[in-house]
Here is the input.
Amino acid sequence: MRLSIVNVSKTFPSVKALDDVSMEFAPGEVHALMGENGAGKSTLLKIVTGLYRPDAGLLKLDGELVEFFSPRDALAAGIGAVHQERNLVPRFSVGENILLEHPPGRRGFIDYGAIYDRARVLLELLDPGIDVRAEVATLSVAQMQIVEIAKALSLNARVLLLDEPTASITDHEAEALFKVIARLKAEGVAIVFVSHKLDEVLTISDRVTVLRDGRVMASGEAIAEMSRRRLVSLMIGREERIADVAGGAKQGKVALELREIATSYGHSGINLRLHEAEILGLYGLVGAGRSELARSIIGDGRITGGAICVGDRPARIRNPNEALRRHRIGYVSEDRKGEGLVLSHSIVSNIAVTIWRRIATRLWLIPPVVERNAVTPQVQRLAIKSFSLDQTVDTLSGGNQQKVSLAKWLAAKTDILLIDEPTVGIDIKTKVELHELIAQIARDGAAVLLISSDMAEMITLADRILVMHNFAVVGEFVNDRIYENGSEAIMSAIHAAEKDRKHLHDRAAIA
Amino acid sequence: MIGFRKFASQEWAGLAAIFVLGSALAAFLSPSFLTEYNIYVMLRSASVELLVAFSQMIVLAIGQMNLAVGALGGLVAVLFGAMLQLLGLPLPLAILIALLIGIVGGFINGLLTTRTGINGFIITLATGSAFTGINLGLTESRPFHGIPVEFVALGDSRWSFVPALLWPPLIVAPLLAIFLYRTKSGRKLLAVGGNMRAAELSGISANAMIIVAHAISGGLAGLAAVLAVSQLGAAQPEIGSTWLLISFAGPIIGGTALAGGYVSILGAMLAVLVIALIENMLVLMKVDPYWVRFALGGLVLVTVGVNRWRAHQMGRN
Amino acid sequence: MSTTDLAPTPRARFEIAPQLGLAIIVGLLVVVFAWKQPGFVSSFNLFGMGRSLAVDVTVGFSQMAVLATGGMNLAVGSIGVCSVMFAGYLMQDLGLPVPLAFLLAVMLGGLLGWLNGFTIVRSGVNAFIVTLASANLYSGAMLILTKAQPINVLPPIVSSIGSYEILGYASPALVVALVIGLALYVFYRYSVPGKETLMAGANARAASMSGIAVSRSIILAHVLSGVLAGVAGLMVVARVGAAMPAVGGEDWLLPSFLAPVLGGTALAGGFVSVVGTFLGAMLVTVIRSGLLFVNISNFWLQLFLGLFLLAAVLAQRYRGLFRMRLT
Ligand SMILES: Nc1ncnc2c1ncn2[C@@H]1O[C@H](COP(=O)(O)OP(=O)(O)OP(=O)(O)O)[C@@H](O)[C@H]1O
Ligand SMILES: [Mg+2]
Here is the structure.
């Protein structure tokens, strides 16, 4: 089915998200939709799925005018989607979630046997490891993403919209997804693919449409004739820039030390030493236990063994409050909507929250002027795009939200900063900016522990890299910032650990 | 032991244990507990409460609350009484119309919440006040006594220790279970409660399900009111005025999620039975009636706390 | 609840516009009632309205304090009546001086609120449930201890406070309510604990990760709520000149929610409107008093109250404000 978007516009109270855009998605093609954060990609997909009504313009399916008043209408027309946000029913099983649109059954009754059978068939394509009977609430973020994709596949849609489907899954799972996409393409499905990962876009798509500030910069151009350079300059309006992260900072004293740490999450024997003015990378595959380690450090999980030293003094950190106030440790969460930000509150509040106690007068009152003055430099330094500091954070684009969640820790001026997946879902331009910022934070003397699954990012930024696997540290090396060397070192550490484990396993089996 | 594990992992397992132990204790403390008549009395008072609990539970299932359960029940009760006494309608017809009034009342609640987008809590707070107002305005607080004798007798009749009034909730419970666990409409309703946005994206009409839930809730409140009239032998305007606590206590102690998307029908039933047991024990022991409220409050707190703690322990394993 | 437009309007945390609509509705109603029954704006009636307004406002603030955290306090009325009876007991049976008795009674309110907050934080059970249960515990305990007997031999000064008229039409209780309102406004807008409470209410996880002691904020909110419920109870004691066990209880449930919710406080937490709560209580008081004035029978009053409130809520509905679901 051919989906045409004709002169569509959509204005939110604060911004014009889409400005007279037109494009066409043809059957049997993978059509990439690219653009910076806030360019209007998700808004466009939400209009196509009937979630938003366009202010102007129209949609056509195979040349026929269509109008969607709700997601039902779009589904009925054969349009399926995986949205950027997770949309699952937490207390339902995986199977029931996958077939929520069309549960099999007769005369109004549900046939659970058929649900599980059909769901299993779909999951086999992506990740056979997920149990169709498990409650969705018990899954990891990556698994939920897979379930959503399976759910979209269950629709047998003729037009399939995928909004950053690979943002939180492993490369392995992404490969599986790409195979499925190739098959659907062969079956004549029109596929729209949104992603910030340039490499995967260049490999799997046939055409690309680029949005910038709600306007179409390139409409359905063949990927074959598109160079990476041109694509980038269409998206961000200028050439791609290499992050200026020139190290050169002298490593300082030890800021944070973990000795033989064990946690309630299942870590054991973790040793780690983080210096002032250093970026220590913590690399590992999804599920290696990196975020959990960071959480345990700030007291959001229990430490069950070993010792933590902050500076040269032993520390017992019971909660994030103590981490911030007593030990000056901050944690930038990977889950920015859930933990990093209070979406319904203003930019000012979100940034100043960490320093309210510091800037308050003796009566514990905060003069608004003081609050603003404390926040403004951070907003400027990070170039947060907003029309007012009182704007609520939920109206910012993803990239700007991420900047706000970093800004509050910059305002707090903590000595130690644990940064978890800072650039997931962030466009390439902002990504470079964030990289420079993180490098700058370290140069200014802070100790930074960087958690990232993006190997290129890790190798660009880290001074030293620790490799984690299965809740243990399996390797450590000094990063010379040469991609081949770094990736080689990381992969061999992980493989060695895998082999060790298999070996132990086999021995145990023999015994 | 695996069987036991499975049993213990159910929300209602703790309640079942409390009920059995409590009964044993009651039998030990008071010889009149295990008499046929006493058990009948206990179950009869639980009959209405079971329906009240179900009425609230179905609205909790969609993540809302219905504060008008009692007010609607009171209104249905007096209108039911008026139909019998003033209009002289035949009993079955009066019952049918009473249930319809309940359903319409719930439907209005549902319609108002969906049409305005205002939280059901607020809407039912206001409509509850209006329902009570109609009730008081019509009756000026005077009950209707002209209830057919056979209907009053039905409220007193029993088979061994099983009161006739227990049948309606016993029939409603499996119907609700089938609806919520097995039918497509029921699953849609729970999906809306579990994640409204996800449900809508999957083509489910959240508004329709919200209205359905409120209408069912109203119908159940109406049924509870009819039972209460039969039990009391008169259509008292105060019927429903004490339902608030029990309507929440039943489902919540039983494991229904306040946030929506998950209900436990068996749990709610056991919770109501445990509450009835405690009320009964206090009466048998001739405790000051003021203690009943106190004990009920304590019970809610303890069982919910224990449930939380247990869930926590299980989560850890 | 339509799916087509889920986009929230950007709004500052404290917004005057919705309250303006409410103020206009209240003003219009006053004009209508005064036009129908000039006695409505007599100094006698204004005094009476002010006195009951003070109670409604304080009860509304008591609820608002907990709504700010995204919870609810169903025990507002029970705490109120406990303070009432405790004050009566202190004055009649122990013969304590009135100011001391009032102070201790308010402190009891704070203590009961603290118990709620502590239980919620420690058990992790939803505030709705905990306060539903504690409402029964507190009322039950009060009835057991007082045997439901009123305490009516109070020092005469108590009822003279209640009937004292400032400038002929304002009651001291109203002044107290206004002062409380002012203090709360400053608290939520400018103070560290107030702002932290709102953050914790909007997103407890994020607040905690930003170094806010969320448990402490929740307990503080409940203490505040308890104190305010106690103050409201004492206002009634002064008005009636006796400590009645029938004060508060479930009769306060509806007004406690109406005032803040009409005023634009979100049930979901994280946002309060002090001015709005005051106006919301005013709306309720004006409707109630006005209906009595135009000779609606007491029995029908509740119906009209319900309908008026429904109409007011509808008229008040500004996009997004009431749309939040309970969580
Ligand atoms: N519900 C909303 N209310 C107000 N503004 C909105 C809303 N949703 C999106 N916007 C604004 O519309 C613009 C486009 O947002 P959109 O989500 O479509 O961007 P995107 O291209 O998907 O970005 P990202 O790559 O970060 O996902 C942004 O400026 C955003 O702030
Ligand atoms: Mg997007």
